[in-house]
Structure formats: structure tokens, C-alpha cells
Amino acid sequence: MSNDRSQVGWITTDTLGPSAIGSGLFLVFAPVHLWVPEQVSVAIAALTLAVIGGAYIGFGASSGLARQFWLEFGAAAFYAFVALVGLLWSPLALPLGLAAHAAWDLLHRISAFGAPVPKWYIPYCVVFDLLAAGFLLILYLP
Fold this sequence. Notes:
two-stranded antiparallel sheet
């Protein structure tokens, strides 16, 4: 049986839209940072940045092209480094890293370079990245 509807887990993107799903994920993500000590919040945000940066490694690998894989791997390594900087030295690196990741997503959207990604992924991730970046910037400003 064939199903032509795009799905993110059990949520169909043609019903809610990827941007709404990214917003919803942010609404789950944000309150956690208000309930935990700042050090834990920073660790969660750093892990989040590293994980979402790493998603592109899979996209690069699935392209079957070594050049795209290494480009995406390098970008993921950059986001992991920014996450480490945020964790060890300045939490303000984390919202900047998330905003940079949104720009990375948009460059893929216009097919400037990089591995092909699922159509739903970019609006979903851009919305989450920008909402999280703004929220964390306000939260971590001295």
C-alpha cells in the first residue's frame, strides 16, 4: 500500500505543515530551559545544537557523493565545536550557532550547495532554529 503523504513520525506534514511542527517542538523545548538550572540549560542547548548539526551527516551520506558527505561532515563538526564553546566558555555561542544553522538550512533550500534534504526538513528546522536562538539569546544575556 502506497502512501504519498509526507510524514514526520506520526505527524503528517500536509496537515500541520513543517513550520508548525518546528514551532511545536520549540514549545516543548523552551519551558525545559526555564525549569532547570542554567548550567543544565546550557548543556541541553549545546547537545541540541550538536545533534541538529549532525543530521546533515546523514543527508551527506545518503547522497552517495564523497564531496557532499565531507562538506556536511565539516559543517557538523563546526556546529559541534560551537556547542563545545557554548558549553565551556560562553553560552551566547549557542544561540549564534542555532542562527548559523538556520542559514545553513536556507542555503540548502536554494540549492546553493550541499546534500539534498527532504522538502519538509528545511522549514521545520529553520523555524525551530530561529525560535530557539532568539529564546536562548534572551535567556543567556547577562
